[in-house]
């Protein structure tokens, strides 16, 4: 199933869906399926799981509506299922104030496991007007969309994560030792 046949977005709205995407292994399975369908065996190989574990996680994703079977074929009397994402992107709800941001936690876990020398990380502290802040957010999103359209499933995976935010105000202490 070409990704052009998929809905643009699936909004995570249920507790079951949120539990499904909150798991790092299932996040990695969805990353495997973002460009092309794959079987349980192909998913297990790409994620580094046993087939049984891969099957368990894919069933949870399928039950929550995040992935679906897009084709089947018979191989030596066994029906092989190909799974794909249910939408081109998954939209997570905003975390509550002080709550964990699941997407950033997964990104950091993936970053920490990536090979040294194959990562580009930069943090910049900026002082921007609200208009500049909004413009930068729009430009970053457009750049990510532009490169997503250029993505070729035959090429190695690359992940782009960015977070533009206003830090929480720092609380003043009384100056005494705590």
TrEMBL record:
CDD domains: HTH_ARSR (cd00090)
Pfam families: HTH_20
GO terms of molecular function: DNA-binding transcription factor activity
Domain HTH arsR-type: 16-97
InterPro entries: ArsR-like_HTH, HTH_ArsR_DNA-bd_dom, WH-like_DNA-bd_sf, WH_DNA-bd_sf
Protein name: HTH arsR-type domain-containing protein
Native source organism of the sequence: Streptomyces smaragdinus
């Amino acid at each position: 199933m070409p990704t052009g046949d998929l809905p643009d977005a699936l909004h995570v709205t249920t507790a079951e869906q949120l539990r499904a995407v909150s798991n790092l292994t299932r996040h990695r399975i969805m990353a495997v399926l973002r460009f092309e369908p794959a079987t349980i065996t192909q998913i297990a190989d790409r994620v580094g799981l046993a087939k049984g574990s891969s099957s368990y996680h894919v069933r949870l994703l399928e039950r929550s509506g995040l992935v679906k079977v897009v084709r089947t074929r018979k191989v030596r009397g066994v029906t092989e299922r190909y799974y794909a994402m249910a939408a081109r992107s998954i939209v997570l709800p905003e975390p509550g104030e002080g709550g964990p941001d699941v997407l950033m936690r997964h990104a950091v876990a993936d970053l920490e496991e990536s090979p040294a020398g194959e990562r580009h990380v930069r943090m910049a502290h900026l002082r921007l007007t609200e208009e500049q802040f909004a413009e930068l957010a729009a430009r970053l999103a457009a750049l990510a969309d532009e490169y997503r359209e250029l993505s070729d499933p035959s090429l190695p995976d690359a992940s782009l994560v960015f977070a533009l935010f206003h830090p929480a105000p720092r609380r003043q202490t009384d100056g005494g030792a705590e």
